[in-house]
């Protein structure tokens, strides 16, 4: 994950324009998708609001990818192809940033180096063997799980869950591993109460989504919780090893949470 294309984040506390909810949503869109939303204000307060609204952007991305999946099926294609195209659409819509973060985190943690050395590995533009293997297996699992789940609703839920993992990774008390970069801007910006509130909304939305397919009424909320649990475990390990979160850690948490949610939908079929 990288800052918006409009440039670097200002120093904490800097004000570009009076903050509004639209600035938080625009920043979330700019950070999490290819859409150039151009927020008027970019600072830690706006970043916190963006991380709270991240699941909304995730649901939108999931709907777009689900439309690709449904459209491919409507054209008569069966098997894994609809899932492959849906996962590919997600990669395009996010510029592959989350996958890149996952690969970088795998290389950093897999290097076995202390925090400073692991962070330096993560800064490099190349991808090492740990990153390649992690990427390959993650994408394969996502495609296989989505194919087995057999419903676009699983993808929408998983995408919202992946961005909800960001909300929790940026809550108060979670430090940044570096004094600069995206991690330093968003770390610790979300209050616990706000994280709990948005989690409740996502769970309710998942349960309501399951009304379209009764068999998913309990599965989708369970997928949300499983995705959050997987992201919590990886985030805790990353903070212990690296000293905090970075943009790469946050990107990795998105993909890990999405994968875990899809697995629950597939296994509960």
UniProtKB/TrEMBL annotation:
Keywords for this protein:
Cell membrane, Cobalamin biosynthesis, Magnesium, Membrane, Transferase, Transmembrane, Transmembrane helix
Q: What Enzyme Commission number(s) does the record list for this chain?
A: 2.7.8.26
Residue ranges of coiled coil:
none
Is the Membrane keyword given for this protein? yes
Return the Pfam families for the record.
CobS
Q: What subcellular compartments does it reside in?
A: Cell membrane
Its predominant location is: membrane
| Membrane topology according to the record | Multi-pass membrane protein
TM ranges:
49-71, 127-146, 193-211, 216-234, 249-268
Q: Which cofactor does it need?
A: Mg(2+)
The Gene Ontology biological process terms listed for this entry are: cobalamin biosynthetic process
What pathway is this protein said to act in by its record?
Cofactor biosynthesis; adenosylcobalamin biosynthesis; adenosylcobalamin from cob(II)yrinate a,c-diamide: step 7/7
Q: Does the keyword Transmembrane helix apply?
A: yes
Family listed: Belongs to the CobS family.
Q: What does this protein do?
A: Joins adenosylcobinamide-GDP and alpha-ribazole to generate adenosylcobalamin (Ado-cobalamin). Also synthesizes adenosylcobalamin 5'-phosphate from adenosylcobinamide-GDP and alpha-ribazole 5'-phosphate.
Cross-referenced HAMAP family, in alphabetical order?
Answer: CobS (MF_00719)
Name assigned to this protein: Adenosylcobinamide-GDP ribazoletransferase
Q: What organism is listed for this UniProt entry?
A: Thermostaphylospora chromogena
Upper lineage is: Bacteria, Bacillati, Actinomycetota, Actinomycetes, Streptosporangiales
């Amino acid at each position: 994950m990288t800052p918006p294309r409009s440039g670097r984040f200002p120093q904490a506390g800097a004000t570009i324009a009076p903050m509004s909810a639209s600035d938080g949503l625009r920043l979330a869109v700019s950070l999490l998708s290819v859409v150039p939303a151009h927020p008027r204000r970019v600072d830690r307060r706006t970043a916190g609001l963006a991380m709270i609204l991240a699941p909304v952007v995730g649901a939108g991305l999931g709907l777009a990818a689900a439309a690709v999946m449904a459209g491919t099926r409507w054209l008569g294609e069966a098997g894994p192809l609809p899932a492959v195209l849906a996962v590919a659409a997600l990669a395009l819509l996010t510029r592959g940033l989350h996958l890149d973060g996952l690969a970088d985190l795998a290389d950093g943690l897999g290097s076995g180096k202390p925090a400073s050395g692991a962070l330096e590995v993560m800064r490099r533009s190349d991808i090492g063997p740990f990153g390649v293997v992690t990427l390959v297996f993650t994408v394969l699992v996502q495609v296989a799980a989505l194919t087995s789940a057999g419903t676009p609703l699983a993808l929408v839920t998983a995408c919202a869950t992946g961005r909800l993992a960001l909300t929790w990774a940026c809550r108060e008390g979670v430090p940044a591993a570096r004094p600069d970069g995206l991690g330093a801007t968003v770390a610790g910006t979300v209050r616990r109460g706000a994280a709990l509130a948005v989690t409740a909304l996502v769970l309710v939305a998942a349960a309501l989504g399951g009304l379209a397919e009764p068999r998913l009424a309990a599965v989708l909320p369970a997928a949300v919780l499983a995705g959050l649990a997987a992201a919590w475990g990886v985030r805790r390990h990353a903070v212990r090893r690296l000293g905090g979160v970075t943009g790469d850690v946050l990107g990795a948490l998105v993909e890990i949470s999405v994968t875990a949610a899809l697995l629950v939908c597939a296994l509960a079929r």
